[in-house]
Design brief:
- The chain has 183 residues and is of the alpha+beta class.
- The protein has a single domain, classed as Aminopeptidase (3-Layer(aba) Sandwich).
- The protein is built from 3 helices and 7 strands.
């Protein structure tokens, strides 16, 4: 019997060409998740310089009951990750969203975003906020196209002129992709 607080993978929407993809919740500090986060940190260092403070996101913040972390793999190879953590009563934060360059353009970021929105709603959050930056225009475009709007600055980079903070209300969303229920 699945845990009612975990989004049901059978109800999530995979891109239509995803028969070999697996989306799974995981611990953030180990294996595939740690590998992807290391790559994300390297990418952020290139975009913003290595003088910036490292992102503060402790692995336990992504554990139930106030958080979740997801990894997308294809044939066992990790491709993308994202997680949510509680930042205030009723509000979760999207954090550590990353898609490997070779896997970009396949809808994985949008899949993870929808997954995290559903997970936030399933965990009882009303809103999902995020912080990104001006050196990540593709991320900003994704979030705006998904209905995110500016919210008050918050978190580690709230005083940075490069910080962009967005948010939106969340609710559980399920879809039928026509793939026989396993999506």
């Amino acid at each position: 019997m699945p845990d009612a607080s975990i989004p049901d993978p059978e109800g999530l929407c995979f891109p239509s060409n995803s028969s070999e993809l697996e989306l799974r919740p995981t611990a953030v500090g180990y294996g595939d998740a740690a590998e992807l986060i290391d790559e994300l940190d390297a990418d952020l260092a290139v975009r913003y310089g290595s003088d910036d403070d490292p992102v503060l996101a402790h692995p336990e913040e992504f554990d139930l009951p106030h958080g979740r972390f997801f990894v997308v793999t294809e044939d066992g190879t990790p491709l993308a990750c994202a997680g949510i953590r509680r930042i205030a009563p009723g509000t979760a934060e999207l954090k550590r969203m990353y898609v490997r360059p070779a896997a970009r353009g396949r809808g994985l970021a949008r899949l993870l975003l929808a997954t995290c929105e559903a997970a936030a709603a399933d965990l009882g959050f009303d809103e999902l906020w995020l912080e990104t930056g001006d050196a990540q225009p593709e991320a900003v475009a994704l979030y705006l196209s998904a209905g995110y709007e500016p919210v008050p600055s918050f978190g580690q980079y709230q005083h940075s002129p490069r910080s962009i903070t967005l948010g939106k209300p969340v609710q559980s969303v399920r879809c039928d992709s026509g793939l026989g229920g396993v999506v």
